[in-house]
């Protein structure tokens, strides 16, 4: 479940930093991100934002059976508050990315994104965080 949620956040918000993924999920995602990267599902990508950004890979698309990210289901029905959350994170971005607690600062905003990846059951239960 942790891997699916993290993968969904990366898929919908890419390019996205680990810090942003942690803020959306409400937990640290370092171990899960390393697992997803080692499995070839996410990779570092170029971005103009501070910190290392990540995006999904062609293997991710292949495993979901889609040709492009445009084929992902619309996020709004699954997460009606997602746009509000993203707007709030963008507003707080300078503090969030570079604040006194650094890039590993945790927040309490929790968003369940697993529903957005109905076709990715193969990865369910494989999270490195023991979830």
UniProtKB/TrEMBL annotation:
Name a biological process GO annotation.
chromosome separation
What is the name of this protein?
Answer: Putative transcriptional regulator (Ypuh-like)
Family matches, as Pfam families:
SMC_ScpB (PF04079)
Keywords noted in UniProt: Cell cycle, Cell division, Chromosome partition, Cytoplasm
| Sequence intervals crossing the membrane | none
* Species, as recorded: Propioniferax innocua
């Amino acid at each position: 479940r942790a891997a699916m949620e993290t993968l969904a956040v990366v898929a919908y918000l890419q390019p996205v930093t680990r810090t942003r993924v942690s803020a959306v999920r409400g937990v640290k995602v370092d171990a899960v991100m390393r697992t997803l990267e080692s499995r070839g599902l996410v990779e570092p990508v170029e971005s103009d934002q501070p910190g290392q950004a990540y995006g999904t890979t062609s293997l991710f698309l292949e495993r979901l059976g889609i040709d492009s990210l445009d084929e992902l289901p619309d996020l709004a029905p699954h997460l009606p508050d997602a746009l509000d959350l993203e707007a709030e994170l963008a507003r707080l971005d300078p503090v969030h990315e570079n604040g006194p607690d650094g890039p590993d600062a945790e927040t309490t905003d929790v968003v369940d994104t697993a529903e957005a990846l109905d076709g990715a059951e193969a990865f369910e239960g494989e999270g490195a965080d023991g979830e």
